Amino acid sequence: MTVRLLRLHAVSRRVPTAMAAILACAVGLRIALIGHWDSYGALQLPLVFEAGAAGAIAVATASPIGEPERVTGRWLPFLRLASVLALTAVAASAISTGGTGGQLAGGTLAAVRNVAGITGIGLLCAVAFGGGLAWAGPAGYLVVGVFGLYTQWHHPALTTPWIWPDRPPHDLGAAMCAALVFVLGITAITLRGARDRLGE
Amino acid sequence: MTAVGVPAAARPAAAKRRQLQALARLLRLELRRNVMPLILPVAVGLFWFTSYRKAMAMPPLWGLRAASIQTGAVAAFVCPVTGAAAWMGSREARRRTIDLVTITARPQWARQLATWAATASWAIAGWLVCATVVYGVTDQQAAWGGPLWWPVAVVAASLVAMSALGFAAGALVPSRFTAPVVAIAAFFVLALATQPIEGSHSYWQISPLVSTAWDIGPDPSLGTFYPYLPDLAIAQLMFLAGFTVAVLAGLALANGSAGTWARRAAAVVTTAGLLAAGTAVALAGTAHLDGDMIAIPALHDAANDRPLHYTPVCSRTAVPVCLNPAFTIYLPAVAAALAPVLKEVAGLPGAPTRISQVAASYQQVTGNDVSVGLPGPDMSGTVFPLVLPDQVPAPAMTPSEVAAAVRGSAGLAILGVVINDGRGATGAQRAVAAALRMAVGLPEALPSVVGRQLVTLPLPAGVQAAARRFAALSASARHGWLAQHLTALRAGRVPLAQLP
After folding, report:
1. What is the ipTM of this complex?
2. Residue B379, by phi and psi: left (phi above 0), alpha (psi -120 to 50) or beta?
3. In contact, A48 and B184? CB cutoff 8 Å
4. Which of B239, B228, B216, B97 is nearest to B157 (CA)?
5. Which residue in A82, A115, B269, B332 has its CB near the most CB atoms, within 10 A?
6. Which chain A residues are Cβ-neighbours of B50 within 8 angstroms?
7. Please, are residues B87 and A132 in contact by the beta-carbon 8 Å criterion?
8. What angle, 0 to 180 degrees and rounded to 10, lies between the N-to-C axes of helices A39-59 and A76-99?
9. Phi first, then psi: what are they for B453, rounded to 5°?
């Protein structure tokens, strides 16, 4: 019964497609890392794929059922939590694995931090604007992160930990900010779900 | 009955008017039911964070800010615009209304074009608001020049192309994942396509992120001494227009989108669009560095090679310091920085009677290296050519930073030219130049290249002692001695021992 419920929830949220998109991001990163990149490109490259994976997770929160599901499913918050946690874990491990053997800027630690933080932004956007448009958060933050990395060369550099992609992997402040955003996002999506209109 | 009541000529005109009214109503509906206004705040916020603040931190020079916001705006708008357009493109499939709208009077392609046009219009409106704010503020601050419209046009054309790409992707692959995938893929392609740019003749310069020579970046000289060259912008517009036309016409090729004749016409238009885009890429590959901008021979207007006419702004000093009026904000600081040096040499034979700002000379070396220097000799008659440090590729500087740098570069150069303290200078020449440097607060010894490093070696003991002795004289005594002996000193006929 529980397994069937989980499966049905995952299918309704297009979790298999999201998984495929995440794996495509990891494979894309692996292929891209084969190429020769200058310092700019090498730093920005992982962020693009991390944002892509986070965007897929955020979009996978959209519910095609809406109100009826909310009023009848008491397991819904747990199902939402489980699917988002599972997808985030898959994304973090896939992106880290995708970088194995290549020159992954920041290494595994930075990849996990970035994926978690950007996913948190996507989840908050899903709660605020709906799952269908939740990609705007990760995509927008990608531009902010790339700009933050750009300022490392073109001063004045942005040093705020809220732009965690341009902080070193061991930066505690950046890790805490990313973790806080992720926790906020996952709490909000668990309790409220994505704000979707029926029929989107 | 109707044939009698209506004049024959009025019928097609009325039908055409009704058709246009219907189109306008469709566009109005699409403008109201569009997701772009919801996403635009994200794009505008990104523009503010990444481009506006950066542009406002730069000196108020039109060329510099215009080139800077082209790159910034394209990067800020690409994700939101492409993603929102993909979302709109997949609307009918997402809402499962394809069957419902298929039976309407208009073909699918025409409906799609209306949706796309509304999406692109919102994006352009957002960009125009951003550009208006930047140009409005610059207009209040800039001392000379006017707005440059080529960068604005390139960004607008980029938004049209991005929305066409996103819309086509959404229409062809209607999935909730299409929008994020297309948005991030578009950013990836656009931003990292600048990686392979090497030199000024790279095909990759066709990327709308490139507003000027990629190796130099936006610099304050843009459009100040010579006209802003539109060559690259024209090629980019050609590429973006061709790309947009090809993508939109390609939509009509999908089965059931339009009638047979319309699809045949669309095939021709798609081919023409691709040809135009390909030609633009080929033209970008023929580019070369012209001053600090990119020139494309086939698109180049020779009139743009003529220098701009301007009346320089000059300081009211004994030796006037004259700058291009665009750089007026620097004049008080630069004149004050050079005043001690000019006071030491004023009226001496061979001393400059005027300091005049000139355009820096740019030359592509190898790969991505560009050499920057003076366009001519150190001195032309009695006019000393000045290149402000802010004119060369470097982070934007405040007037006081520019003044300090001018004192350390032009100040030294003026003393070197007047005393003839260059390579092979005599001990007396070196001592007098060092004394004057000390007198105006510049370092006694100059750095020189040893091996591959810049090192400052102390002056030889005899030269140093003579320099300190000469520097200890009063300003009038130094000036008097120089007025009498400078010609002989410059010719190398004054031995070190003869210095007072």
Report:
1. 0.92
2. beta
3. yes
4. B239
5. A115
6. 143-144, 147
7. yes
8. 160
9. -115, 150
Rg (CA), chain A: 17
Kindly report, residue by residue over B164-194, the tens digit of the pLDDT.
999 999 999 999 999 999 999 999 999 878 8
10 Å Cβ neighbour count for A13? 25
- The rounded distance, in Å, linking the Cα atoms of B324 and B345 is 24
Residue among B42, B177, B195 minimizing CB distance to A37 = B195
Mutate to test the interface with B, among A29, A133, A151, A197 (most CBs of B within 10 A): A133
pLDDT tens profile A127-178: 999 998 999 999 999 999 999 998 888 878 888 999 999 999 999 999 999 9
Residue among A48, A136, A146 whose CB faces B83 most closely: A136
Q: Rounded to the nearest 5 degrees, what angle is found at the Cα of A182, between the Cα atoms of A181 and A188?
A: 90
Average pLDDT for chain B: 88
Best mutation target among B38, B39, B42, B189 (most A Cβ atoms within 10 Å) is B42
Searching chain B, which residue's CA lies closest to the CA of residue A156? B395
Residue A4: pLDDT over 70: yes
CB pairs under 8 A between A and B: 98
* CA gap A15, B366 in Å, rounded: 51
